[in-house]
Amino acid sequence: MSTTPTEASRTDRKPRPRLLHGLNWLVVRQHRASILAVLALTALGALWIVYQRGQMHDALVAVGWPKKPLDQSMSSGGLMLTVNALSALPVVLAVFLGATLISTDQEHGTAQLVTTQSVSRRRWLTTKLFWCYLMVTVCGVGLSALFTWWWEPYRSAFSFVWYSGPVFDNTGPVLPALCLFLTAAGIAIGLLLRRVLMSMVVTFGFAIAVEVAWGLVRESLASPRMINYPLNANPPAELDDMYEMDRWVSSSDGTLFGYFHCSGLKTEAAANACVKENGIVDNVVKYLGYDQMPAMQWTGAGFLLLGTIALTVFTLWWTSRRPL
Q1: Structure pTM?
Q2: Domain coordinates of the chain in residue numbers?
């Protein structure tokens, strides 16, 4: 008796259940290479940060930290590589994921094929955007959380201060917000230009411009504080870890003079006479405090997320009015 399965038995076999169905399955299958690349990048980045954190911990314990204060901040090739890679992450995602998401389908004609089927154009595009943004969020949030976990307990040992780009932009909500905004911008640029290579080049230029502009507006994300303390006294403790924006000296009636108004004179006697003549009694510092960092980060992330929403709405509106 033959044991060869008949055609009927083959057709009766139940298909394996899938986690995804319909359009979600189609989009994930189409972009499976990009999704796997982003997940692999996230996993490798996470392992690297965990390893580097352990290396720093061992080095600090070896010199007696925290009981013994450090003479200088620690820096290593691994730390520099980490902050440079995290700073480049939003640009990489924008160029290789955002700029190619729709422009590839437009250039190869896939967009026209899909939109002539039973699935509506808006549903197809919304599904693609959902999976793209999900991957970007997972990558940005995961790596930002791990770098924050590394930086916060060892911040006094870092060679980067809190208000610098390598720390401010790569911890908390800023990194995922930057990734989402630049990816959304790349998608919009690819939609408009309709060519993959051109879209990637323009997106790269736009992303670099945004990174530069972001560095210029970073200090505007919170209201600066002012503090007075006696002219020859040590700075108060609340000025520890501050970002100094400006500094003056002032008289008892509150009149401000440039910080080097008297100290820039040639002799000490002339400087003392200048101080006495102008009635200068206080130092005045305009600054941002370390305790303002979380509010600054969430404010900046809020603006970036609003930009992401605006770009996404524009993308959906544009595709509903014009053929792909």
Answers
A1: 0.86
A2: 20-222+292-321, 225-291
